[in-house]
Model the fold of this input.
Amino acid sequence: MPEFDGVKNFERQDNGLVPIQVDTWEAFVLVNLDPQADSLQSFLGGLVKRCAPLGLAKLHYFDSRTYDIACNWKVFVDNYLDGGYHVPHLHKGLSSVLDYKQYTIENEDRYCLQSSPMVSSEEDAATGATRKGDRAWYFWQYRTS
Amino acid sequence: MINCYEGYMDTNLVIPLDVDHCRVVFDSISAT
Done:
């Protein structure tokens, strides 16, 4: 606090910025406003090792979109964690590039991973343009307590 | 949620608003 020397009833140590936790993972800088929260490494758990081969640090942010949805947050998450059950019915383009016979679900310490080999398809060009590679990875990181 | 493919990923941050509403923030991240 500059130029406050000698000010009465002002304790410099009681008026500093509030400490926050800042840490990095892959290409992300993550901030936690709770100084008592677990470390980022503890929160991420096995996700760090599992994502390391995917090269996420090489990627670059390009867009954000926000949606307000009239449902409880657990309904949204439950839909995501249904093992791809809804995908053939609601996302036909995505469905055309996934091999559901080999779709897997793994529950780990701090995350759930749904994963599927990918197959080539020309059914939906827009989907095929961004859904490339040998495998699709869908991670759900558990929320904090 | 973190969805990954070769050269592309998106994150979906799910924020509870009340018992019947939530906000979902989609961030898209790409190699290009």
Q: What stands out?
A: The helical segments of chain A are 40-44, 47-51, 73-80, 87-90, 92-95, 125-130. The CA atoms of residues 49 and 88 of chain A lie 31 Å apart. The first helix of chain A runs from residue 40 to 44. Chain A touches chain B through 35 residues (CB under 8 Å).
